[in-house]
Design goal:
This protein is an alpha+beta fold and 365 residues long. It is built from twelve helices and ten strands. The protein has an eight-stranded antiparallel beta sheet with strand order 2-3-4-5-1-8-10-9, sandwiched between helices. Strands 6-7 form a two-stranded antiparallel ribbon. Helix 9 crosses helix 10.
């Protein structure tokens, strides 16, 4: 895969909310006038829509960009899934595509709607880029005719995307809420406000050797909010902002309480994770991610005083999303008959060691 896809790392930039919000995405769903919705369209119909949408996107002069379709290499699809967190890229069919551009611009074509374009960034940054998103919408509106009415607004295949078509997604890190068993209460409160919240799904990352291990609920949480019909975009933005601020305030307060109540347990788990990640010679995918999660938790709890907390959090996130892509690329340097699961584990551990060994624990051990 073209390394430019990895070198951008656009959402790993400065993030003052890094302890709670890894990234977020704000976008619009749009469908074309007089065109069948994707789930009703033939492959030929979808190809026609795809060509029209791509012509409009290229008119935005977003360069460089990467276009991923069903014919793209599996490595390319997996890399986009892992680095940019786009699950749909693994099941693309004829006439469907994912467009990845600079400055955190992403667009899926003929998947949920004819086009879902968004801006992705660290923390809640995309909320501050709402006017940039509107400007893109305005430019596309000059090149494409949307399906819309005065009564219902923009029309899309899924009724929840009818109206403004605006949707927000975020990946949160909430070990305090999870460790204190507050997850169900928090989920019910957010559901009552129209949010969807779920434990981040990484089942496709699971190793065969780990399938028998008991599932441990991850502190990585996905939050989604679709602005409903009758609610303005500004009202939606305000609701999202208030929800995020409330979650971060509650999470940080809960961490302080747990850091005292479970001090030794949290410290032991995170210090073990740091020791293994910086010294292990073989790491499986699942073990690597589990240890990174434990290390990240220890840092945000304040139980693992590192030489550069912000720096190591940033690298933990890079490793969380990019390790498997980099391991696959490293494997390509070896003859096919030498590639094995053991070699993958060795390359993975070496990559992690090289990145994390630059940090050290401060104070007395």
């Amino acid at each position: 895969m073209d390394n430019t896809c990895l070198e951008n790392w656009f959402w790993f930039g400065p993030n003052h909310q890094q302890d709670c919000i890894l990234y977020s995405r704000l976008g619009f769903h749009r469908s074309l006038k007089n065109e069948l919705f994707p789930h009703r369209a033939s492959p030929e119909d979808k190809e026609g829509v795809l060509n029209n949408v791509l012509a409009a996107l290229k008119g935005l002069e977003i360069d460089p960009y990467i276009l991923i379709g069903p014919e793209s290499s599996r490595d390319c699809q997996l890399s986009a899934r892992e680095v940019f967190d786009i699950p749909e890229v693994l099941t693309l069919k004829a006439g469907e595509a994912v467009f990845i551009g600079e400055k955190a611009f992403l667009a899926t074509i003929n998947i949920h709607s004819h086009i879902n374009f968004s801006l992705m960034g660290p923390g809640s940054q995309p909320l501050e880029q709402f006017q940039d998103l509107v400007a893109i919408d305005t430019q596309l509106d000059k090149r494409l005719s949307w399906a819309c009415t005065e009564t219902y607004g923009f029309l899309n295949p899924d009724p929840i995307h009818t109206g403004s078509g605006m949707e927000f997604e975020a990946l949160l890190f909430l070990p305090g809420i999870i460790d204190s068993d507050m997850y169900d209460r928090v989920m019910k409160g957010l559901l009552a406000q129209g949010f969807a919240i779920s434990v981040y799904d990484t089942k496709e990352q699971k190793d065969e050797e780990d399938l028998s291990q008991q599932e441990i609920r991850s502190p990585f949480i996905q939050l989604t909010y679709t602005v409903p019909l009758g609610v303005s975009e500004q009202e939606g933005l305000e609701k999202i902002t208030n929800a995020l601020e409330g979650l971060m305030k509650g999470e940080r307060a809960t961490r302080e309480r747990l850091a005292e109540k479970l001090s030794e347990e949290i410290k032991d788990k995170s210090w073990r994770a740091y020791a293994l990640l910086t010294h292990a010679q073989l790491l499986s995918k699942t073990e690597c991610r589990s240890l990174i999660s434990d290390l990240r938790a220890g840092i945000v709890y304040g139980s693992l005083p590192m030489s550069s907390a912000q720096g190591i959090l940033k690298d933990c996130d890079r490793l969380w999303f990019g390790t498997e892509t980099l391991v696959r690329q490293a494997l390509e340097a070896y003859p096919a008959d030498q590639r094995s699961e053991k070699l993958s584990k060795s390359l993975r551990s070496k990559l992690v060691r090289n990145i994390l060994s630059q940090y050290h624990i401060e104070g007395e051990i």
